[in-house]
Design a protein that fits this description.
Layout lengths: L3 E2 L4 H13 L4 E6 L6 H12 L3 E7 L1 H8 L8 H10 L5 E5 L5 H7 L3 E5 L10 H6 L3 E5 L7 H16 L1
Parallel strand pairs: 1-4, 2-3, 2-5, 3-4, 5-6
Length: about 160
């Protein structure tokens, strides 16, 4: 299996997943920007891995991160972010998507288990209705307090301003 899939390669990944599902494996899916890997990300990915099956992560492209987070983001390129996620050992494949939400990719891949952090509720998780309609599970992961990329960057900016002043 290839590890990083672009939008043009979604069909190949879907075929690979279909074959694994025929062998009885489940598809575990989570997504996000993962701009600066931190302990909160590590805990989420470890939780996803513990669900069993293939762990595929939907990763916002640089373009979609910029739309979601604004100028100056992402800090790391999509290629670097994807490679760093794979190095954690928790993720089998990273699939890039340009949209602001993962709806298209979850519609294509049809995960059996969908996971998001608790900054979302089941009612607000993109793809949740479709996953549950297929008999899958949607899990909300309790985030590690104090860890978010936005918070880390905000604190770093404050620290830099304090040290200059």
């Amino acid at each position: 299996m290839k590890n990083i899939y672009t939008t043009e390669e979604w069909a190949a990944l879907k075929e690979y997943i279909r074959e694994r599902k025929q062998e009885g494996q489940k598809l575990v899916f989570t997504n996000g920007c993962f701009d600066i890997l931190h302990p909160g990300h590590d805990a989420l990915l470890a939780f996803a891995r513990r669900q069993g099956g293939m762990c595929v992560l939907g990763l916002n492209t640089d373009l979609s991160v910029k739309k979601l987070k604004g100028p100056g983001r992402p800090i790391n390129s999509e290629r670097n972010r994807a490679q760093n996620l794979l190095k954690t050992g928790y993720v089998d494949a990273v699939v890039l998507y340009n949209e602001e939400t993962p709806q298209k990719i979850t519609d294509v891949l049809e995960p059996d288990i969908l996971i998001k952090g608790d900054d979302y509720s089941i009612e607000t998780i993109i793809g949740a209705p479709e996953v549950t309609a297929r008999g899958g599970k949607v899990l909300v992961f309790k985030r590690v307090p104090g860890y978010s990329t936005t918070e880390i960057l905000r604190n770093e900016t404050k620290n830099n301003e304090t040290n200059r002043g």
